[in-house]
Design brief:
This protein is mainly β. Helices cover about 0% and strands about 45% of the residues.
Length: about 200
């Protein structure tokens, strides 16, 4: 719920996402052990819909379809989704999940994905990581681009499409990819699929 802090818990769910928020704001999710979550694509560690002012930090994700999946729409401004200093193992997909972090139609300012560690095998556990970090149809602003930096990502596949960090997926704009370390991430390290700025 809005205004909530979720902290120091061990959270698992065999039937869906481990944590889910819809239309929430001013939420912090910190210092939790998250996973396993449902064995299918619904088994996301943290799933957000139309949410803003969210900080997800210092959590451990294991055996999840994706670590963090945040979705908005083409017209709503959602600010300040920050995913930092988390650790993930056994990101398992299957497609279209399989990310440490995916933004889907997230538009606004203050967005950061930084200082996370995703340590997976190559090829990955089960379907494995798709894109470790994916910015799908998401837009920062000229004054406040989406920052994807200081992450350490290892492992990927066996997807034939996935890789390390994918910016500009299905367009998008104002994204900065800086100072990340990627080891055996699959089919590519860093890619820009479209968009501008």
């Amino acid at each position: 719920t809005s205004g909530q802090t979720v902290t120091r818990l061990r959270i698992s769910n065999p039937n869906g996402p481990c944590i889910s928020g819809s239309g929430v704001s001013n939420v912090r999710i910190t210092d939790n052990i998250i996973g396993p979550c449902a064995a299918d694509t619904s088994g996301v560690g943290v799933k957000l819909w139309q949410s803003s002012n969210i900080r997800i930090d210092n959590n451990t994700f294991d055996d999840v379809a994706s670590g963090v999946y945040a979705q908005g729409d083409a017209t709503t401004i959602l600010d300040n989704i920050v995913v930092d200093h988390n650790r993930a193992t056994r990101i398992r997909g299957p497609y279209p999940r399989g990310q440490l972090v995916q933004f889907n139609s997230i538009n606004g300012s203050g967005h950061r994905v930084e200082c996370n560690v995703s340590d997976n095998t190559n090829p990955g556990y089960l379907a494995g990581p798709e894109d470790q970090i994916n910015m799908y149809s998401s837009n920062g602003t000229a004054a406040s681009p989406i920052l994807l930096r200081y992450n350490k990502l290892r492992g990927g596949g066996p997807s034939l499409n996935g890789g390390g960090i994918l910016a500009g997926d299905s367009a998008g704009s104002y994204q900065i990819v800086d100072s990340n370390i990627l080891v055996n991430p699959g089919n590519y390290g860093v890619a820009i699929a479209g968009g501008n700025n």
